[in-house]
Each structure stands twice: as structure tokens, then as C-alpha cells.
Amino acid sequence: MLLIFYLSSLSTTGVPGTKTERFLILKSFHLIEYAVLALLLFFAFLKYRHTIISAYLYAVTDEFHQSFVPGRQSRFRDTFIDLLGIFIGIILIRFIISIKFFKKFVSFPKNL
Fold it and tell me: Alpha-carbon dihedral of residues 14, 16, 19, 23, nearest 10 degrees?
């Protein structure tokens, strides 16, 4: 969360490329950041609902934070891109949990 806060404190005016390239670069960062956040939060909570709610609430507060950063804009639509990243993280978690090799070393609650 601190890394996301730090990165969202930086101006994006130095990102090169056309408008479309910049959009794809910056939004892919959203997806990656929030997929990783979802992974980490899940291993803290071991509950999907808590993970999704906490990560999304952080995404909303991060967009609010960006409204105070020069060179950044706060857009509610970005929270939906973050939510997509969160769901990508959840899919990765489900995949990791399903791997039999991984189950030998880590025990998860039966209801996952």
C-alpha cells in the first residue's frame, strides 16, 4: 500500500508516448499494482470478501489522494480498472490454491 501511495504521488507527465500508449502503460500499472495488492491482502485475511473490499476501498482512497497531486487527475473510472486488477489477483490466488504441489507446503482452510 505504501508503494502504491508513493507511485500515485509522482507526476505522470514524464511518461513518454502517444496518448494511447500512455493510457495503456499507466492503466497496466493499475492492473498490476492491485493484482499484487489482492494477493498480499488475501494471504493476510484468507477471505475473498475481505480482500476485495479492502483493496477496492484503498483504490478509492488512492484516487482521492491523487486529486491533491500536481500533474495527476483523480478519476472514478480508474477505480474500476483497479477492481479489474483485484479480480485478476483473485483469479491468480484461485490458481495458486488449486496447484497440488503448493498444497503440500501450505495449508488453507477447507472452504477456499
Answer: -80
